[in-house]
Amino acid sequence: MVMDTIQVRLSHGLVEKMDDLVQTGIYSSRSDVLRDAVRRLVLDKLVGILPNTGDSVKEIKELRKKVSKEKFDLESANKLAD
Questions:
Q1: Which of 10, 12, 21, 73 is deepest in the core (most CB within 10 A)?
Q2: Nearest in space to 35 (alpha carbons), one of 9, 80, 4, 56
């Protein structure tokens, strides 16, 4: 899968926290930390609009798979909360 590259400016404190997560082995890189954070943000925005079919674990797994593989526009994702 081809990924886009972006530049992000973060405070020194946030970068230190990210590095702690990498050093403890929770994530393998800073990029993995940021990718997971964005996925969680997108999923959080989708929670209120998910259909309740009775199998929320399956629904979340399917959404995570979709979010991790598809390109999406962050501006569009932010509009989901409106």
A1: 21
A2: 4
Which residue ranges make up each domain of the chain? 12-79
- The rounded distance, in Å, linking the Cα atoms of 6 and 13 is 20
What whole-number distance in Å separates Cα of residue 2 and Cα of residue 4? 7
- Cα R_g (the chain), whole angstroms: 15
Q: What is the reported pTM?
A: 0.56
Both tokens of residue 22? 């990498």
38 three-class SS: helix
For residue range 17-56, what is the model confidence (pLDDT) as tens digits? 999 999 999 999 999 999 999 888 888 777 666 666 666 6
